[in-house]
Amino acid sequence: MAGSNKTNPTTALRTGITPPRWLLAELTYACPLQCPYCANPIDYTKYQSELDTEDWKRVLTQARKMGAVQLGFSGGEPLTRKDLPELVKHARDLGYYSNLITSGYGLTEEKIAQLKDAGLDHIQVSIQASTQELNDHIAGTESFQHKKDVAHLVKKHGYPMVLCVVIHRENIHQMPQILEMAEELGADYLELANTQYYGWAHANRDLLLPTKEQFEQAEQIAQAFKEKVAGKMKIYYVVPDFYEDRPKACMNGWGTTFLTIAPDGVALPCHSARELPGMDCPNVKDYSIEQIWYESLTFNFFRGFEWMKEPCSSCDEKEKDFGGCRCQAYLLSGDMYAADPVCSKSPNHHVIQEAIDSAKASALADNEKPLIFRNSKNSRLLS
Amino acid sequence: MTINPDQTIKFSPLHRLQWEEAQQKDVILYPEGMVELNQSSAEILKCCDGTRNLAQIVSDLERKFATTGLTNDITAFLEVALKNGWIQQN
């Protein structure tokens, strides 16, 4: 990778590389919630430094110039950044469609109006369950009523309202009530995200992974509801890949569409990629987004098909799913070049069934170990 | 869903229609998604400003592009747009 930001990559280098479309700006790892399925890295406490306002503005400008158009302000809890309205305004001036991905914690009507004036396009509020008791338990914070109030205020101020509920064994039985709650709150979109087992969710998998029967029942209920509310509410259903035969086309292919910038400025092809060994991810303090996207070792690592091993390299579905998720391959098989073990063609596919069996045994055990909540104390203990 | 010929049509306030320089295309943006538009679809949606009904949109576009017989194509596209929530009537 070039060491100077004056380097202008040749056209040949860029041949076949599509520009980023989606920029996920993880503004901070700070969060008042403690969700045990958080996608932030377990060792997030190691990364204390945060980009400043000018760094973020430069990143937004550079990525927009390349063609990024969807922008997610995420975290941690992005509302903990005092400069959020300023960044939102900068994003709007550049023509981004900006999404605030928030727990709703700390969001007041004044702030909602201020962000609207700054040009924020939509607010996605996460709710952990359909009851106060379970919501507050999972979030590790008393937050249920406030989240519902925030959802109403988001609507009142003319934003499209996206409600996001992460689904796992502790709340999957509430599917009918979750759907009713979304309808009652007037959600324009409901994202039902079955837990993806990375980061904290990987550490808590035995306690979070539902059985196949639970999944199928919940999915049936959600699909039926989808038809009922067609034209009023759109439901995004993120499938649980542990119960699929083929892996997901993770990130729409490595380095093709998605760009994540972590709080400390590290650029990632997906938000888990910094956990892969030897990635040596580039930092936006050292390189331009253009250099990072086109030239860095990290972003070129799993582009195309050359890196693949069997059974992927000769598979006729490789252009459809790109061999699945690299982070999942690494987490479950110890080999980031291997086929995603979710694939039934993978020689490691048995680890999926073992994970399912282990979670089932854990659910039936008399003394099930407690959930590990995502907080600084646990982060330091586990990293 | 069908278009009511008597009512005006407006682009949804929950979506954004904009020209994307990098893609040389008009696109519709909405929460976590984007639809790329071809030129004719974009031209139709730009007419959905809340002041014109179906017949007026058809006649304006026929005049603009010096052609006739666009009614069926425009109606079909607007029905798709209505179903997707890109436009509203009332």
Cα-to-Cα separation, first versus last residue of chain A: 30 Å
CATH class of chain A: Alpha Beta
The CATH superfamily of chain A bears the name Aldolase class I
| Quaternary state of the chains | heterodimer
What strand line-up does the widest sheet of chain B have? 5-1-6
The greatest interface here is:
A-B, 21 and 17 residues
- What is the strand content of chain A? 5-15%
Output the helix-strand order of chain A. Answer: HEHEHEHEHHEHEHHHEEEHHHHHH
Q: Write down the overall geometry of chain A.
A: globular
Broad shape of chain B:
globular
Uncertain ranges of chain B: none
Please give the order of strands in the largest beta sheet of chain A.
7-6-5-4-3-2-1-8-9
Query: Structural class per helix/strand content of chain B?
Result: alpha+beta
CATH architectural group of chain A? Alpha-Beta Barrel
Distance between the termini of chain B: 14 Å
Mean pLDDT of chain B: 95
The radius of gyration of chain B is: 13 Å
Helical amount of chain B: 25-40%
* Low-pLDDT sequence parts of chain A: 1-12
Summarize the structure.
Chain A: This is PqqA peptide cyclase. Chain A is α/β, with parallel strands linked by helices and 383 residues long. Chain A has 16 helices and nine strands.
Describe the structure.
The complex is a heterodimer of chains A (383) and B (90). Chain A has 383 residues and is α/β, with parallel strands linked by helices. Chain A contains 16 helices and nine strands. Chain A has one domain: Aldolase class I (TIM Barrel), CATH 3.20.20. In chain A, strands 7-6-5-4-3-2-1-8-9 form a nine-stranded mixed sheet, with helices on one face. In chain A, α2 runs parallel beside α3 and α3 packs parallel to α4. Chain A is globular, with a radius of gyration of 21 Å. The N terminus of chain A is likely disordered. Chain B has a domain of 50 residues. Chain B contains three helices and six strands, in the order ββββαβααβ. A three-stranded antiparallel sheet of chain B has the order 5-1-6. In chain B, strands 2-3-4 form a three-stranded antiparallel sheet. Classes of the chains: A alpha/beta (383), B alpha+beta (90).
